[in-house]
Amino acid sequence: MKDDIASKQKAIYTLLSKFGDAFSSPQRIKLISLLSQGPKSVDQLAAMTQQSKAAASAHLKVLRGSGLVIGEKSGRHVWCRLANDNVGLLWLAMRNLGEELLPEVREIVRDYFEAPESSSDLSVVAAKEELNSDRSYLIDLRTALEYETGHIPSALNFPLGNLENSIEQIPPDRDIFTYCRGPYCLGALEGTELLRNRGLPAKRLRFGLPEWKASGLAVEKSEPIE
Amino acid sequence: MKDDIASKQKAIYTLLSKFGDAFSSPQRIKLISLLSQGPKSVDQLAAMTQQSKAAASAHLKVLRGSGLVIGEKSGRHVWCRLANDNVGLLWLAMRNLGEELLPEVREIVRDYFEAPESSSDLSVVAAKEELNSDRSYLIDLRTALEYETGHIPSALNFPLGNLENSIEQIPPDRDIFTYCRGPYCLGALEGTELLRNRGLPAKRLRFGLPEWKASGLAVEKSEPIE
DNA sequence: TTAATAATCAAACGATTATTTGACCATTTG
DNA sequence: CAAATGGTCAAATAATCGTTTGATTATTAA
Predict the structure, then answer these.
(1) Residue A2 above 90 pLDDT?
(2) pLDDT per residue over A181-201, tens digit each?
């Protein structure tokens, strides 16, 4: 009986260790991080993480097995999403703990993701104030689907993918703040650089929608256009 | 340059994946869970997790490598502790997410850790109320070192290890609440059972010090007696 | 119906992991 | 000093993991 309960305790720890498994590979972390921006198909995830479909599928199998990610078949796609918002918050907590405990992470962030000219050190709340002032535009550089699923209120969507073509539609009469998927997002760097090269006064916010949401601020959704 | 930054992003994810590694084995989870109760030597941890010293040492090497656990040599012991309180909170968040997402975890908890006669469903705040009333004793079943490092205010320490010998010192004039290391703690079940077998009206609280702390309540420390 | 697409699977590989065993080193105690 | 204790290390093992390749299934489009 005592051994019985001990084995049950072990069973709980084994189930929870699947959560650890989910986060124990950089590729899977990337997948979780992308999914925290909204649902995606296996195909999209494979492309966005630069790996073969088979490899992505295998990682997603681990993630689904942990319970953190849910995959639902619809037509010939399997749409993957985080099981709920708390999964994204767990990822956020891990990231924050990383910056807190690991000097190496802080150094990389400082040296590569906080170029002072093109990046803004506004906090989430400070950014909200700034955006309320109507002195500036906020540009969401993520995909249309991510934007539709949820974005910072008042943000305009100019997906990085065809920013070069759509860039002329941005009126040059205000300051511009950009955001993409978060503090470690490469798209945010690239998009902001592109805007600045065209002479637009763009600055990159050092957070994304998950951080905005985690601060308790409201999120805006939009219906798909088509 | 673009590739350079991509490799830095990957470096961050690789560092964070060590956090995942830390939680990706039941044995290591057990170690983290024990360390969330206070510092312990490698030896103690090996004994408490029922594994060889070498095996425990190897697991602790992984944990130290992740940055979540710190080991400090003092005399001929290496004392291990969590890097800071947020590590314990991360573990708590994972556990809560597990109960939220995994029906299997909920079932085990319900069937094996919530026997209604001997366990109390008081929440942390409700328990605080009850303890303020002076109608009951609160008994901390953990080791003396854990108790000294931090315990619920007003709790008396009767370590499970020699509870059979010390049990007579408990006055039988009040209700008794017990706690040990948390909701999945075997010691809590065993100790409470022992008290009840001796006719004492003991009920097990379904939380421990980490949950108490996480609720923002004050913690009491005591100097070692010796 | 056929062709194309999305996803998984199966086999295979090299790399990594968990655990045991026994040796080893550092520190303290007798 | 020698003996005992606490901890790590090195080698060996069996098991598991990550990725590739190519085949296979399900669904949709032509």
Answers:
(1) no
(2) 999 999 999 999 999 999 999
**φ and ψ at A69, to 5 degrees?**
-125, 145
- pTM summary value: 0.95
> A226: distance to nearest CA of chain B, Å?
33
Give the chain A residue whose CA is nearest to the CA of B101. A67
A3 touches B at CB < 8 Å: no
Smallest CA-to-CA distance from A50 within A70, A82, A27, A34 is with A27
- Looking at chain B, the whole-number percentage of residues with pLDDT higher than 70 is 97
Contacts of A64 (CB under 8 A, 6+ apart): A70, A71, A80
Q: A residues 26-85 near B, CB within 8 Å? A: 26, 28-30, 33, 67-68, 83-84
How sure is the predictor about A147, in pLDDT bands with cuts at 50, 70 and 90? very high
Residues of B within 8 A of A67 (CB-CB) are 98, 101-102
Chain B residues 17-46 with Cβ under 7 Å of strand C are 21, 24-25, 27-28
Whole domain around residue A141: which residue ranges? Answer: 114-214
Single-letter code of the amino acid located at B26: P
Is B162 domain-assigned? yes
Task: Give the CA radius of gyration of chain A.
Answer: 19
Q: CA B54 → C1' C21, Å?
A: 10
Q: Which residues contact A170 (CB under 8 A, 6 or more apart)?
A: A137, A139, A156, A158, A176, A195, A200
A105 to chain B: closest CA residue: B12
Task: Check which CATH number belongs to the domain holding B72 and give it.
Answer: 1.10.10.10
Q: What own/partner pairs with CB < 8 Å and gap ≥ 24 does B168-172 have?
A: B170/B137, B170/B139, B170/B195, B170/B200, B171/B137, B172/B199, B172/B200
Q: How many domains does chain A have?
A: 2
Would A43 be classed as within a structural domain? yes
CB interface of B with A, residues 116-135, below 8 Å: none
Q: Which two tokens stand for residue A134?
A: 């109507």
Q: Is B137 helix (H, G, I), strand (E, B) or coil?
A: strand
